């Protein structure tokens, strides 16, 4: 489930990239670059992979689905249409910061 979403705009007001945080057992955060059609996914342990050839429409579908983890496993993972590579790992403090945002949002939903 989508928790937080930010659009970072270019000088011409087009979308430079989109950052999103999800309440998911598998994924923590995504960063999507529509111009290059590249999606970065940070998983629960902080390992971050990039996926190429991801259209804006496909990313929108991913973002709006009920379970991003299920969507990832059924439509992105091991799909040759989306070549991928490991990019980097988040620092433990970055992982904790994202998990804190998720927990805070869960608490707000419970109220």
Spatial extent as radius of gyration: 14 Å
Strand content: 35-45%
Low-confidence stretches: none
Shape: globular
**What pattern of helices and strands is seen along the backbone?**
EEEEEHHEH
Give me the side-by-side strand order of the main sheet.
1-2-3-4-5-6
What's the total number of strands? 6
Helix content: 25-40%
For this structure, the quaternary state is: single chain
Profile the largest sheet. 6 strands, antiparallel
Gap from first CA to last CA: 17 Å
Number of domains: 1
Classification by helices and strands: alpha+beta
Descriptive notes:
The protein is an alpha+beta fold and 111 residues long. The chain has one domain. It is built from three helices and six strands. It has helices at residues 56-64, 68-76, 92-110; strands at residues 2-9, 15-22, 27-33, 38-43, 47-51, 84-89. A six-stranded antiparallel sheet has the order 1-2-3-4-5-6. A hairpin with a 3-residue loop joins strand 4 (38-43) and strand 5. The longest helix has 19 residues, at 92-110.
Topology:
Layout: E1 2-9, E2 15-22, E3 27-33, E4 38-43, E5 47-51, H1 56-64, H2 68-76, E6 84-89, H3 92-110
Antiparallel strand pairs: 1-2, 2-3, 3-4, 4-5, 5-6
Which features would summarize this protein structure in a list?
single chain, 111 residues, 33% helix, 36% strand
């Amino acid at each position: 489930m989508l928790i937080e979403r930010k659009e970072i705009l270019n000088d011409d007001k087009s979308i430079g990239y989109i950052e999103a945080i999800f309440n998911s057992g598998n994924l923590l955060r995504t960063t999507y670059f529509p111009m290059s059609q590249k999606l970065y996914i940070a998983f629960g342990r902080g390992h971050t992979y990039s996926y190429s050839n991801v259209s804006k429409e496909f990313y929108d579908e991913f973002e709006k689905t009920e379970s991003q983890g299920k969507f990832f496993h059924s439509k992105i993972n091991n799909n040759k249409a989306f070549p991928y590579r490991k990019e980097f790992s988040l620092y433990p403090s970055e992982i904790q910061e994202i998990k804190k945002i998720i927990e805070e949002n869960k608490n707000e939903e419970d109220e």
